[in-house]
């Protein structure tokens, strides 16, 4: 979902500061030129369903405590609902362009967002904050959008972090 550690630049799908209604949400050039064509090509070649999942590296920088895509920063509590709605917009945008989404991760490497020296997009989440956001915001928002079918994965990180993110 938007910029990752493979991206040549940090970006999100709504870099307009304060756009909590996400009226400026739009897929990026990278999606149109690289991601979507590759996904569509893979789907055309596959004899079976290609299972795609979206994984965010960072919310828009203006939604975070540090105002940056990288380094130590968490999602501002007042951005919990807009961030959940961002997920829905991502799924709808991809699916309307021939890339059906099977599942989502809540955050790529959530503990990296507590590292002051982390060099690429990240966002810190404690297990408790993530649990509460899923229960109060993301889960109900996905359900209201008719996306209950999506698989939701947490602790998109390394095995040694599993004790911090119990099921």
Question: What does the model show?
Answer:
The chain has helices spanning about 30-45, 80-95, 125-145; strands at about 50-55, 100-105, 150-155. It is mainly α. The protein has a 3-stranded parallel sheet, covered by helices on one side.
List keywords for this structure.
mainly alpha, Glyco_hydro_30_TIM-barrel, GH, 167 residues, 3 strands, single chain
Average pLDDT, all residues: 94
Strand order of the largest sheet: 1-2-3
Any idea what the CATH superfamily is called? Glycosidases
The total count of strands amounts to: 3
CATH topology descriptor: TIM Barrel
Q: Let me know the largest β-sheet.
A: 3 strands, parallel
User: What would CATH call the class?
Assistant: Alpha Beta
Name the helix and strand elements from N-terminus to C-terminus, one letter apiece.
Answer: HEHEHE
Rg (C-alpha, Å)? 15 Å
Catalytic activity: a beta-D-glucosyl-(1<->1')-N-acylsphing-4-enine + H2O = an N-acylsphing-4-enine + D-glucose
Family: Belongs to the glycosyl hydrolase 30 family.
Domain Glycosyl hydrolase family 30 TIM-barrel: 1-164
Protein name: Glucosylceramidase
């Amino acid at each position: 979902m938007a910029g990752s550690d493979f991206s040549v630049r940090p970006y999100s799908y709504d870099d307009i500061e304060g756009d909590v209604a996400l009226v400026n949400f739009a897929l990026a050039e990278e999606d149109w030129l690289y991601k979507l064509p590759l996904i569509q090509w893979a789907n055309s070649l596959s004899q079976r369903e290609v299972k795609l999942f979206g994984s965010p590296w960072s919310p828009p920088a203006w939604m975070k405590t540090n105002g940056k895509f990288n380094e130590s920063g968490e999602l501002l509590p007042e951005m919990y609902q807009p961030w959940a709605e961002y997920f829905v917009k991502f799924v709808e945008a991809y699916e309307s362009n021939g890339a059906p989404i099977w599942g989502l991760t809540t955050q790529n490497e959530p503990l990296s967002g507590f590292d002051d020296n982390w060099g690429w997009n990240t966002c810190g989440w404690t297990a408790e904050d993530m649990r509460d956001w899923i229960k109060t915001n993301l889960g109900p928002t996905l359900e209201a959008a008719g996306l209950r079918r999506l698989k939701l994965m947490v602790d998109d990180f390394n095995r040694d972090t599993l004790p911090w993110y119990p099921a």
